[in-house]
Amino acid sequence: MDQAYERTKEILEKAGIRPTSQRLEMAHLILSKHQHLQADEVFQLINMHFPHASRATIFNNLKLFAEKGVIGTLELKSGITHFDSNMDRHHHAFNEETGEITDIELEEDLEKQIFENLSKSYLEKTGLTLTNASLVVTLKGKPSQP
Ligand SMILES: [Zn+2]
């Protein structure tokens, strides 16, 4: 087994998921790069490599991966879930014309400042405690060529 598979196996085991060969192949394909895929796109990706994998099994494994925190979920438009293979802390830019989703990493100081401001304001106004904040930048138009 090569190193990348070993790492994927470790990720699954740490999450409490039994790494069957199918789950391992599937997680390996999803986690191979940072991407945001809808369930159908995950199915197509897996199907391209393993045409005999059943749709139900793929969807069940996908759900399991999300529940156990192997991948993240992202709902930018109501009712549309994207599965996020980047589990590092990050934010998103969403292009509402092209549908493209890209990761944004904020400078640590700036992120802290935004978080603290929101946290303070919520606590003062509502008495509620802010536990997490995730930023979504919405874009419009087509990117100009560099
Ligand atoms: Zn992301």
TrEMBL record:
> Which residue stretches, if any, does this entry annotate as coiled coil?
none
Region forming the signal peptide:
none
| Family matches, as CDD domains | Fur_like
Pfam families, A to Z: FUR
Specify the protein name: Transcriptional repressor
Give the source species.
Leptospira kobayashii
Q: What is the lineage of its organism?
A: Bacteria, Pseudomonadati, Spirochaetota, Spirochaetia, Leptospirales
